[in-house]
Amino acid sequence: MSNTLSERQKKILQLLMKCHGRASGKLLAENMNISLRTLTSEMAELKRMALVDSDNAGYKIIDDESSLQLMALEDTDLRQKILRRLLNANQAIDVDELADEFYVSTSSLRNKLKEINKLICENDLQLIYAHNTVRIEGTELNKRFMIRKMIYADFPSRMMNIDNLADYFHDMDISSLYTIVLSSVEANGYYIQDAYSSSLSLNLIIGLYRISQDIHTPKLKDVDTDSIEYKLASEVCHRYTKHFNKTVTEGDIAYITSLFCGQVVHPNRQQPYDSYDFEFETKISSILATTFEKYMLEVDYASMVHNLSLHIFDLIKRSNSNNFVSTQIHSTMKQKCPFIYDVAVSLAKQLEEVFHITIPDDEIGFLSVHIGFIIENSMDNDQYIDILLIANHYQGIAEHIQNKLLERHKDILRLHVMDPASNVVPKQNIDFVISTVPLEIIGKQIINISPFFDVVERAQVDEAIAKYLKEKKLRRNNVFLTSCFNPALFFIDETITTKQEAIQFLGQKMVDFGIVQQSFIDSVFEREKLSPTCFFDAFAIPHALTMDAKKTIISVLINEKGIQWDDTQIKLCLLIAIQKENILEFSNVYNNTVYALCDYERLNRLFKCTTSAEFVNILKQ
Fold first, then answer.
1. pLDDT digit string, tens, across residues 539-597
2. Of 13, 176, 226, 246, which one is least surrounded by beta carbons within 10 A?
3. Which pairing describes strands 22-23 and 568-579: parallel, antiparallel, or unpaired?
4. Which residues pair with 543 in a beta bridge?
5. 186: which strand partners?
6. Partners of 229 in the beta sheet?
């Protein structure tokens, strides 16, 4: 039965096991980055397999037959335990003794070691055999990166806590380590930024644990001994030595210094570092202007460029110390705000070129948050709603209601006030009516309220406004979405099995259709190099770096047998060409399309579509 489990189902079961066999649907959905609806669908299948059950407290693994179903997962767990043992060893281990330690045959162990070697090669590590012993060869820094990678694979950031880490590092008081780190930082008048706290604490704990095992790092070059980061590292090492009676080298202090770089701040953060050059802020402003110009976005970022510059200043420090923050923000932003994430990818590319640094996906997630606030705070809000308020002015009734409405909705409300006795009707188009007197107007929604406009009535109006704006946005998006598809650019083809083939095929079809130039295809491949456009091992939405299409259009390729997209397999590819005049409308449609495709049930229905019209209708539902 374990062979019939999908990768997503295996991950769900793994998360349940980490939660001691029981967890709420909300917790599981958040850690899987899927909707509750999708999780419910997956759980229904796992229940059918008799692997899980549910009650009012959430989901739980069934004890009796589940162990047999989870053999594949346990096999992976064994590999992780062997790898952990090898990483924590400071000398070669006898192969036979290692096999006995894990109650497996020597041949089984050697098979596991082959799997481990493939895994660690990604971190520039390798297994070395000599005289029936085995050890991991590679730099100490790469070994620490490997340990961090394993921990994040085992414990997503929302589930990581001191107790879980204590299970990972034997014979070490992790709680005391954590206290030493925090107290050392606070004693110097600094604090760890919340967004970086989990990642930094983990890196520091890994480093200090390795020191406790007499595994040290060589001294790093160009360490600024006058920096606050060096001062903090020295304080941590002093307290660590005093508490645990362990020897700390200059190399260890230098390494911990690098971990602090760009991740601690003074409470008065608006006063930047002494080394902060205000010409740097001007340079960031110029890079932002180029980024927004490329996306045809007219935004006012003057009030927010300072905070972004401080963030990028820290980002450069983290990059130069080869120490980045691990977070799940990037996956959330990519799923919920894909257009904003795409702008952040473009910004990251320019920063890499200007400052000669490398920016991983996790750091792009932080950039996308800054970009998102700039765009949201600067764009004109076209989500206005026109409301006709019918109320008289006796005892200030109309004024009272008007003030309450504007107090709650001043940014989106255009309010037109009319006395019940008046025969003058506003010329503007009215979306709906709020009235203190009973009346009926054909074709208009009417909300009757009392002159006091009490709490219940205010909630009723709030709900009506939210519903209307949602429907208005949906109507506008659906009109534009429909215009983006053409039956001539809808394909079902099981012969196209790779990312390169899919992009080349759909791109050439767009060229032949007269929508884009031949250079469009190369631009799509260039965009793919920056950051993957694949979502949740299910679908991909590739697009070009340029926005010079004659018309915004989406071409569709479905292959239910699968298209290999980097390390995953997808069944749906939507290639997008964008006309620059449509960029604002497109951003909404792009975000909504990704959101819709994250609905597992709807996605499966889209895989089965045979016509463009059917595809668009399901997408719009």
1. 999 998 888 888 889 999 999 999 999 888 899 999 999 888 777 777 777 777 787 78
2. 226
3. unpaired
4. 576
5. none
6. none
